[in-house]
Specification:
Blueprint (H helix, E strand, L loop, with lengths): L2 H15 L7 H5 L4 E5 L33 E5 L5 E8 L4 E9 L3 E8 L4 E11 L2 E10 L13 H9 L5 E10 L5 E10 L3 E11 L5 E8 L4 E6 L7 H21 L7 E9 L3 E10 H9 L13 E2 L6 H14 L3 H17 L7 E10 L8 H10 L4 H10 L5
Parallel strand pairs: 13-16
Antiparallel strand pairs: 1-2, 2-3, 3-4, 4-5, 5-6, 6-7, 7-8, 8-9, 9-10, 10-11, 11-12, 13-14, 14-15
Helix pairs in contact: 4-6, 4-7
Length: about 400
């Protein structure tokens, strides 16, 4: 058994043992000297080092000013480090609490779903002589709200989760260093819902001053992608989104042009998955497609996804990676959504840069139907963000393209 495999096995054992730590949460809550609040989760243990523990976004002393889907309460100890966290799901009335521990050789975060008594997260960074050598992360899908100690023993829950191909989100990483004491390579084994176990490795690249420039991740299937790109100083999210939207729009036009479509394009959907994948799938509908749907009294804007097109983002991967980092650093997934709507706006207003055959009221729109556009009002708001003018929306309503 190789080292990564043995560490993965140990991670499962550590998660099982953490069941016994549920009763210790009150001890960490008692250490709290200062309490701050945030809209989302703020502290990623993978970014911890002995000089600082950065917050992924703003926190506030004013609890009442926070009104977000991921409302979090953080407690800080005498050293100013987070030691306790609590958050809840208001609609389902599910509650979670967690704690951080610190010593010379490891830093841990352990989290529990209080409704079920099951550890929902176990995360650990290991150190030797002050530098990180291994990272372990295990998250239970659904944040462990689907399992209960009142119905199963912890051993039964352990076996059920371990044998369920959709319950575990896990990573074990080991780091290798160059002669300058910088990480040169990180090797990982992962478990992902619906995918199973796979491996990857990261290559770290530095400039002449040994400042990290990029990290490229290579997967066992032979693919690779840029997963880190240093963000220039003073680059604002707004500037980055504008630059990326313009560049992406140009690539989308090029992608569709290569398909050599002959019929006028009426609609172009930029399909994405919120908080997961912002590289859009492109789905075109012709004027003929739209007319057929109107005749059949079908909702026009959900296309046939079997005929999608991928965008090859290699030419703009630096910008895309920088935006992903900003989303991660700020725990703000809306940045990706906003960027895609800006790209759609460019495509709509320029009618695909005038390079393709489109209808007079052509529109591009970016959407994740799983969470967006479920009401007429919300979908119209999305269309307006994507550059569709009020006159066109009114015309579509009269023609039956858009419901009243």
């Amino acid at each position: 058994m190789n080292t990564l495999e043995s560490q993965l096995k140990k991670l499962f054992e550590q998660w099982l043992n953490s069941f016994n730590e549920l009763e210790t949460i009150s001890d960490y809550k008692a250490q709290v000297k200062t309490t701050l609040y945030s809209e989302y989760s703020r502290y990623d243990l993978e970014k911890f080092d002995w000089s600082h523990f950065p917050s992924d976004g703003p926190l506030t002393k004013d609890k009442e000013s926070v009104d977000g889907r991921g409302f979090h309460e953080y407690g800080f100890n005498d050293n100013g480090l987070p030691c306790y966290v609590a958050f809840k799901h208001d609609h389902n009335q599910v509650y979670w609490e967690g704690f951080y521990t610190y010593d010379d050789i490891q830093v841990r975060y352990v989290e529990f779903c209080l409704n079920t008594g099951v550890p929902s997260a176990f995360i650990q960074m290991e150190f030797q002589e002050g530098r990180k050598v291994a990272f372990k992360r295990m998250i239970i899908n659904g944040r462990a709200s689907g399992y209960s100690l009142s119905k199963m023993s912890k051993e039964e829950i352990f076996e059920k989760i371990r044998n369920d191909g959709y319950s575990i989100i896990s990573t074990v990483t080991q780091y290798d260093y160059n002669p300058s004491g910088k990480i040169k390579k990180a090797s990982s084994v992962h478990i992902s819902p619906g995918i199973g176990k796979f491996t990857s490795y990261d290559e770290y690249n530095y400039d002449k001053n040994q400042i990290l420039e990029t990290i490229r991740t290579f997967f066992e299937q032979g693919t690779n992608r840029l997963t880190y790109c240093r963000i220039p100083e003073n680059l604002s999210p707004e500037s980055l989104m504008e630059s990326l939207a313009e560049a992406l729009a140009a690539l989308i036009v090029e992608t569709i042009a290569n398909q050599r479509l002959t019929k006028p394009i009426a609609l172009l959907e930029l399909s994405y998955h919120y908080a997961d994948n912002y590289i859009p799938l492109l789905v075109c509908q012709t004027a003929q497609d739209v007319a057929k749907k109107i005749a059949n009294r079908e909702f026009v804007f959900i296309p046939d996804y079997s005929d999608y097109r991928n965008v090859e983002i290699k030419p703009i991967e630096n910008l895309f990676t920088q935006l992903e980092q900003m989303m991660d650093d700020q725990s703000n997934m809306d940045l990706g959504c906003t960027m895609l709507r800006k790209a759609a706006y460019v495509l709509t207003r320029t009618k695909l840069s005038g390079k393709l055959n489109v209808t007079e009221d052509f529109a591009a729109y970016a959407i994740d139907w799983s969470i967006e556009g479920h009401s007429n009002a919300h979908f119209e708001e999305i269309l307006r963000e994507c550059g569709v003018e009020a006159g066109v929306i009114g015309k579509w309503k009269r023609e039956g393209i858009l419901p009243e």
